[in-house]
Amino acid sequence: MKKVFATLMIMLLTVTGMAQVKMLKPYLSTTIYDVPGLTPYVENALAVDCRSAVYKEFEPGKFKATVEITTIFKHDDKVCNFSKIALDSPVVTDTTNLDGAFIDQQRFSLPNGEYKMEISVVDLNAKDQIPSHDVMTVSVDFPDGTPAVSDILFFDSYTKAAQPSSCTKSGMDFLPRVYPFFGASDAKLKFYAELYNSDKLYDEGKFLVSYYIESSESSSVMRDFTFSKRFDVNKVNIVMNTLDVSDLPSGNYYLVVEMRDRNNELVCSNSAFFQRSNPGVGYHIDDIAGVDVSNTFVSGFTDIDTLRLFISYLDPICSETERNYSTSLVKTGDMKTMQQFMFNFWSTRAPLNPGQAWKDYLGAVKRVNMSFKTTSTPGYRTDRGYVFLKYGQPDKIVESPNEPNAYPYAIWHYYAVANQRNKRFVFMSKDESTNDYHLIHSDVVGEVNNYRWQMEIYSRVYGVGYDQGLDQTKYENMWGSHADDLYNNPR
């Protein structure tokens, strides 16, 4: 029942020597819901950036874009549900000042199980375009009669449905916020979730629902962003609210919704990832001003240069706000405040034993400094060091230092990253004599995403100007090339 978020295509580039070519940019958000006593369903919201689509005149002075969306769900290679629709954009009279996106919403009934969802999107007004294509795993898991929380929908607005559509929920039609990013001008976060089978907890009475914002980096609950409410037990309950996030600092977060029993014990929960950019809000200095560090592991850090180095080691696992603050802090020479920051950092992440958590992390830093350092960069500052420290040791590593036609590259595969599954990082080096590998692509939300990463790896032979357009994602007929296979079938 985890939310799936994917950016199918995100690039709009200009190739030297070629006319500017539009590249379709669709964004997908998937949420999963139950219908107690009936079949659960998967709901897809797909938004297409207006500026990335080709608009065609269909009447004098009137233009519209049209994309074709194909969705297929498979279980054990058997097609369980599918659709193929043509989506029209709103009609415009001026194509020189396009803005915003047009959205399609579809619902697919699917019994409990794990599915491969294939999504293809093609611009019907663009000739010879290769479809944007992605494959992801979707898990539907609502055991019959068991209390559960649906996926969480972020939305921009809703209206009461005068005539219910196939995507109407609880008598309302929602305009989903497909891309979970909230900028400085976004003061409100609106969300919707469903709670199932609370009547299985008790025959009657009330139960507690908690919802809060949690830091993705530290897993700590953000102060002033914790809420609770009591509901009457029922087969289905609705949680819908608007949170004021004007004081939420920049960073990566999860919105968490929990069902709790009368004893405040956790029954079930779900979460949704989102990003916040809010440069006007900084680190709360009062979070550490009163921290007593005497007789703690940081009290032994009395050399200021060592303490500065230790704080810089934290960069890969800091939130954006923490990183901005610590960068300024190490320049001040304020030993006490640096000690307080260091202790508070680890006590919020490992309250039972912050000293041991730091010791374990320092061991990982020493490991990456040994393994990934270059002639000019310590290991923890390299891209591989950053990924290792932030996400841990990969489950599988494939290294290809001598493949014909390719620059040396490595693919790291993680079975799970936070609540994302089956994720990869691709690193490449253009200098065989060094250990300097740079991250060129990842399918982890919030990391570098480049759908043409194979073009970079094999540009060693073919050159950056050889490709025939932005739709091309790899060179064809390359003897001995394995990057595509190693990426899709890690081993």
Give the helix/strand layout:
Elements: E1 4-7, E2 26-33, E3 41-49, E4 56-59, E5 62-64, E6 66-75, E7 78-88, E8 101-109, E9 113-123, E10 132-140, E11 148-149, E12 153-160, E13 172-176, E14 181-182, E15 188-196, E16 206-215, E17 221-232, E18 236-244, E19 251-260, E20 266-276, H1 286-289, H2 304-313, H3 320-329, H4 335-349, H5 354-372, H6 383-391, E21 396-400, E22 409-417, E23 420-428, E24 438-442, H7 453-457, H8 459-462, H9 483-488
Parallel strand pairs: 14-20
Antiparallel strand pairs: 1-2, 2-3, 3-8, 4-5, 6-7, 6-9, 9-10, 11-15, 12-13, 12-15, 15-18, 16-17, 16-19, 19-20, 21-22, 22-23, 23-24
Helix pairs in contact: 2-4, 4-5, 5-6
Description:
There is one protein chain. With 491 residues, this protein is α+β, with helices and mostly antiparallel strands. The protein folds into four domains: 1-140, Immunoglobulins (Immunoglobulin-like), CATH 2.60.40; 145-281, Immunoglobulin-like, CATH 2.60.40.2550; 286-362, no CATH class; 394-488, no CATH class. It has helices spanning 286-289, 304-313, 320-329, 335-349, 354-372, 383-391, 453-457, 459-462, 483-488, and strands spanning 4-7, 26-33, 41-49, 56-59, 62-64, 66-75, 78-88, 101-109, 113-123, 132-140, 148-149, 153-160, 172-176, 181-182, 188-196, 206-215, 221-232, 236-244, 251-260, 266-276, 396-400, 409-417, 420-428, 438-442. The strands form six sheets. Strands 11, 12, 13, 15 and 18 form a five-stranded antiparallel sheet that branches. Helix 2 runs parallel beside helix 4 (335-349), helix 4 (335-349) crosses helix 5 and helix 5 (354-372) runs antiparallel to helix 6. The protein starts with a strand and ends with a helix. Residues 1-20 and 464-473 have low confidence and may be disordered.
